[in-house]
Amino acid sequence: MSKNFYITTPIYYPSGNPHMGHAYSSIVADVFARFKRLEGYDVHFLTGTDEHGLKIQREAEKKNKDVKIFCDELSEKFKKLTKTLNLSNNDFIRTTESRHHESVKAIWNRLLESGDIYLSKYAGWYSVSDEAYYTEDEIIQDGDKKISKTSGSVVDWFEEESYFFKLSAWQDKLLNHYDKNPEFISPKSRYNEIYQFVKGGLNDLSVSRTSFKWGIPVPNDDKHIIYVWLDALTNYISALNFPNTDDPLYKKFWPANIHIIGKDILRFHSVYWPAFLMAAKLPLPLKVFGHGWILSDEKKMSKSLGNILDPLEIIDKYGIDQLRYYLLKEVSLGNDGNVSMENLKNCINNDLANNFGNLCQRVFSFIEKNCEGKLPKPSNLAVEDINLINNLVKKVPDLINDMNRQDLNNYIKQVVEFSFEANKYVNDLQPWALKKTDLNRMNTILFSIVLQIKNISILLSPIIPISSNKILDILNLKNEDRLINSISDIDLFDHDKPFQKTSILFKKIDDDN
Ligand code: MSP
Question: Which are the contacts of 495, defined by CB distance < 8 A and separation ≥ 6?
C-alpha cells in the first residue's frame, strides 16, 4: 500500500479579513494531515489563495489599487494566517503564479483537444460574489433585485460570447463514478444531495468570460478569460507541477486522497472538477469531504451579516491550541455548528485546564519534587495499571479508523475519555500517599500515569500540536517516538534524565477574560 497522502484545503478568496469559517476549513485539513504523518505517511498538504475573477478586480478598483499589488497584500495576510493557525502545509499556492497559469492553460488545451469545449453565447444569471451561474429555478426576486436561493447573493443578467464545457455529456459518467465510489463525496448527506442534483440533468457550463480582464487568458483567444472556477480548481494539480505528469511530485501525490471543503463549494468540487478531470483524461481525487458551516447566532458567519468572530483575536487572547481544540471538539464535522465565547471558555476549562492540564501538572511537579525529576522505573504492574494502559492501546485501531473516516468528533471524545480515566486513576490510587509506605508501588503508579500521559499527548498532537509537543518535550521523548506506532511501546523513556521544567500548560479562563 502506498504510504503517500495528498490533502488540500480550498484556496481562499483573499478579500477581506480571514474569519472563523476560513480558519475552521484549514484547521480541519491540518488535523488530518498531521494524523497521517503520525501514521507514518509522507504527506503533502496544500493551501493557498484564489486571486482571479471579477469580484477581486472590482474590489481592487474600489480601492484604487493595481489588482496584482492588491492581491499580493491580501495573499500575504492569508499566508500569515497559516502560520498563526500553526498549519503544517507543505506548499502555499497562489493562482497568480506562473506555475499555475501554465497548468490551467494545459488543462484548457486538453479539454479543447478532447472536444469538450465549444464556442457559443452565454445569456443568464451570474453572481459575482459567488462567481457562479444560476438557473431561473435557483433564484428568487428580493425587492428590486434577484438573488440566489442558496447563497442569498445578488445575481445579474450577463450576455456574452463564451466558451462552453460539455458538462451535460458527463452526467452518466459522473453518476457511474458516484455509484462505484460511494465515499467519493462525504458525508453521506452530501453524497445524496449531489447525486440528486446530477441525476436531475446537467447544463453545459460557460467557462470563459469577455467582460473583464483579471484572470488567465484562453490560449489563442485572449479576449476571453478562463472561468475562475476552472482556473481555481486546477490549483490542486498545478502545485504538483502539472502539466509535467512525469514530475516526481505529481507521480507521488496525484490523485489526491482528499479535498477538504465547505459545503457551499461542494458542487464545484464533486461535479465540475471530476468532469474536467475525466475530460482531460486525468485520474480523479479519491474523496471530497464537505464540512458544515460555522455559525454565530445560528447564522452563517459572514462579512455582510456582521456576526464574525475574529480567530486572530481569540488566538491572541487564549492561544491557537485552545481555538483548535474548541472548534474541532464542539463543532460536529459535516454539520453546521454554532460557536460562542461562552462555550469556548467552558470547553477549554473543562477538558484542558481542569482535566488534562491539571493531571500533567500534578504528576510532573510531584516527580520533580520527590524523584529528582526523573521517571521512576516500574515494578510489577498491577491489574489496574494494566487496564489503564491497555484500554487505550486496544482502542488505537478504532481511533485510526475514526480519523480515516473523518469521524473527528468521536476520535476526540474517546481521547478525552482517556484523560478523565487517567485523572480518576490517580485520584483513586493516590501515589503521593505511598511515599513513606510503599515506594515500589508509588513508582509503578507514577510510571503508568506518565506512560498514559505520553500516549494521550501523541493522540492529541494533531489537534493541539504545540501543547502536546510541549508535554512530550518535558518527558524527553525523542521525535521518532512520537508516532502512532510508539503507543504500544511500553518503555521509551530515559529514566536517568530529569524531565524538563514545567510551565502552565493550559491557563484557566476566568469569567472576566
Ligand atoms: N476560493 C474558493 C475556493 C476555491 S477551491 C478551488 C472559496 N474561497 S472562500 O475564501 O470563500 O472559502 C474558503 C473556505 O472557507 C471554503 O471551504 C468555505 O466553505 C469555507 N468557509 C467560508 N465561510 C465559512 C463558514 N462560515 N463556516 C465554515 N466554512 C466556511 O470558496
Answer: 374, 375, 376, 377
10 lines ligand 1 (CB under 6 A): yes
CA of 418 to the centre of ligand 1 (A): 34
Helix (H, G, I), strand (E, B) or coil at 347: helix
The model's pLDDT over 68-90, given as tens digits with 9 standing for 90+, comes to 999 999 999 999 999 999 999 99
Contact indicator for 26, 88 with CB cutoff of 8 Å: no
Q: Contact at 8 Å (CB) between 147 and 153? A: yes
Sign (positive/negative) of CA torsion 35, 41, 42, 45? negative
Distance 22 CA to ligand 1 centre (A): 6
Mean pLDDT of 178-190: 97
The rounded Å distance from CA 300 to ligand 1 centre is 12
CA of 264 to the centre of ligand 1 (A): 7
Amino acid at 147: I
Q: Which cell goes with 309?
A: 468572530
Ligand 1 proximity of 336 Cβ (cutoff 6 Å): no
Ligand 1 pocket, residue 261 CB under 6 Å:
yes
Going by CA atoms, what residue is nearest to atom 21 of ligand 1? 21
* Ligand 1 within 6 A of CB of 105: no
Look at 466 and 510; give whichever has higher pLDDT: 466
Report the pLDDT value the prediction gives residue 302, as an integer from 0 to 100.
64
> What is the Cα 151 distance to its own chain's centre?
22
Cβ of 289 closer than 6 Å to ligand 1, yes or no, is no
Ligand 1 atom, smallest distance to 292 CA: 28
C-alpha 138 to ligand 1 mean position (Å): 20
Grouping H, G, I as helix, E, B as strand and the rest as coil, residue 94 is strand
Residue with cell 495573499: 75
Domains by residue range for the chain, with CATH: 4-292 (3.40.50.620), 340-486 (1.10.730.10)
The whole-angstrom distance between residue 80's C-alpha and the CA centroid of its chain comes to 16
Torsion of CA 161, 162, 167, 169, to 10 degrees: 60
Kindly report the pTM of this predicted structure.
0.94
Q: 272: Cβ below 6 Å to ligand 1? A: no
What is the residue-averaged pLDDT of the chain? 94
Residue 133 pLDDT more than 90?
A: no
Q: How many percent of the chain have pLDDT more than 90?
A: 86
Question: Which whole-number Å values give the CA distances from 485 to 39, 224, 318, 332, in the listed order?
Answer: 7, 53, 32, 28
- Here the cell at position 399 is 481511533
The protein residue with its alpha carbon nearest to ligand 1, atom 5, reads 10
The residues with which 145 forms a beta bridge, in sequence order, are 142
Give the model's confidence band at 16: pLDDT under 50 very low, under 70 low, under 90 confident, else very high: confident
